[in-house]
Amino acid sequence: MRFEIPGRPMPKQRPRVGRYGNIYTPRETKSYEELVGIVARQHCKEPLAGDIAVAIEVCGKNIGDLDNIAKSILDGMSGIVYVDDRQVIELSIRKMSGAGEKAVVMVWQKGLQA
Questions:
Q1: Residue 29: burial class (beta carbons within 10 Å; 0-12, 13-18, 19+)
Q2: pTM
Q3: SS3 letters for the chain?
Q4: What is residue 87's predicted lDDT score, i.e. its pLDDT?
């Protein structure tokens, strides 16, 4: 499957400690992961089984750390595209030049053609 996540790719931010010692995910990260889930649900009706490969292309200026962007996208797809991100046995991510800000995500089961 292939889908595009509109807007600036958001790197996964570190958990924060709240006023009363509670640990929480920053709002920006949570919102981006929810957006990834919404888009992914439009392309995947039930989680894939077995080993998964993921390729991500990010477009935009001043893109953050690729590894943290991948983490946001993988976490956003968890439970929707696959049961758990431990199923991902192959991952590639790269920055692309072009107009607009977005992330293009391609997912396929290993052993099957992309």
A1: buried
A2: 0.86
A3: CEEEEECCCCCCCCCEECCCCCEECCHHHHHHHHHHHHHHHCCCCCCECCCEEEEEEEECCCCCCHHHHHHHHHHHHECCCECCHHHEEEEEEEEECCCCCEEEEEEEECCCCC
A4: 96
What domains are there in the chain, each with its CATH number?
2-109 (3.30.1330.70)
Is the predicted pLDDT of residue 32 greater than 80, yes or no?
A: yes
Residue 28 CA to chain centroid, in angstroms? 14
Distance between CA atoms of 71 and 80, rounded to whole angstroms?
Answer: 15
Distance, in Å, from the CA atom of 73 to the CA atom of 9, rounded to the nearest integer, reads: 9
Asked whether the predicted pLDDT for residue 71 surpasses 90, the reply is: yes
* Count of beta carbons in the 10 Å neighbourhood of residue 103: 28
Lowest-confidence segment of 37-46, 76-85, 103-112 by average pLDDT: 103-112
Q: Single out the residue of 111, 113, 36, 114 nearest to residue 81, CA to CA.
A: 36
Residues belonging to the chain: 114
